[in-house]
Amino acid sequence: MEFLTEQVEDIVRCMKCGNCMSACPVFAVTGREAMLARGRIQLLKAVMNGRLELTDGLRDVLFTCLNCDACSLSCPPGIRVDELMKAAKAELLRLGKPLPEPQDLLKPGVAYKELQMRIEFVRSFVESMRGLTDHHQIALSAAVRARYYEDALAEGQDWADWCADGLIDICCPMSYTLSFGAFAQWMARHRRLTGEGDVTWLAGIGLKSSAGELPLDEAERQICFARRADADGIALFSAAALDDAALELLGEIAAL
């Protein structure tokens, strides 16, 4: 590979000292050696020696590099890992192995592998946060996409599994909509997906969101419906929308 010939000096200078472990944000989330500068360099060394090809699997590893350059700053021999990763990514693109195009995702196999990678990556982040919150003895909450099958899974947010596995303590699907019909459907689905375990389910209601501004009478309707649907609580978005009229309404509802 032409790019490896140009980068061979950096590849062989890696001491495998592990200093990059404390600097890499991706490794902090995944804990995977392959997603660390040392691991990525060893994979490229295997390519250089003919023991490994630039496959789709290697693409997944290389493209998780954020090119933040934190590892280069902590590297004793001064390897410019960011430049090395840019060259490797460019070679993948030259060989026709880019990130999946929309038309590729129409193929069930490609879509499955892409979703699997996203779900594993996001879950590893949640697991990392679980470790931190357990250490500090605080609850872990997650505001998630309301449309589980349509949006959440596509972005790697398998929050139903997080609830089932006890990875999070509080789950708040962001059910921001001006349509009461859509809201009611989501409430039924969220009750089922959050399960009957120890997870606290908060119904997210958007007073002022990307969906628009929810009239106060409709906000009252959604809040009351969520309570009847056995939501454990309500989370309102956003704080800036809580004017005097909204606060007065909330006081009236709380007194019921």
Number of strands: 6
Mean pLDDT: 86
Elements, N to C (H/E): HHHHHHHEHHEHEEEHEH
What spatial order of strands do you see in the largest sheet? 1-2-3-6
Largest beta-sheet characterization = 4 strands, parallel
CATH architecture of the largest domain: Alpha-Beta Barrel
Helix content percent band: 40-55%
Number of helices: 12
The CATH topology of the largest domain comes to TIM Barrel
Computed structural class = alpha/beta
Poorly predicted regions are none
Tally of individual domains: 2
General form: elongated
Superfamily (CATH H level) name of the largest domain: Glycosidases
Content of β-strand: 5-15%
Give an overview of the whole structure.
With 256 residues, the protein is an alpha/beta fold. It has 2 domains: 2-94, Orthogonal Bundle (Fumarate Reductase Iron-sulfur Protein, Chain B, domain 2), CATH 1.10.1060.10; 106-254, TIM Barrel. It contains 12 helices and 6 strands. It has helices spanning 2-13, 25-30, 37-48, 56-62, 70-73, 81-94, 108-136, 148-152, 159-164, 180-194, 216-228, 244-254, and strands at residues 141-145, 170-174, 200-206, 208-209, 212-213, 233-237. The chain has a 4-stranded parallel beta sheet. Strands 4-5 form a two-stranded antiparallel sheet.
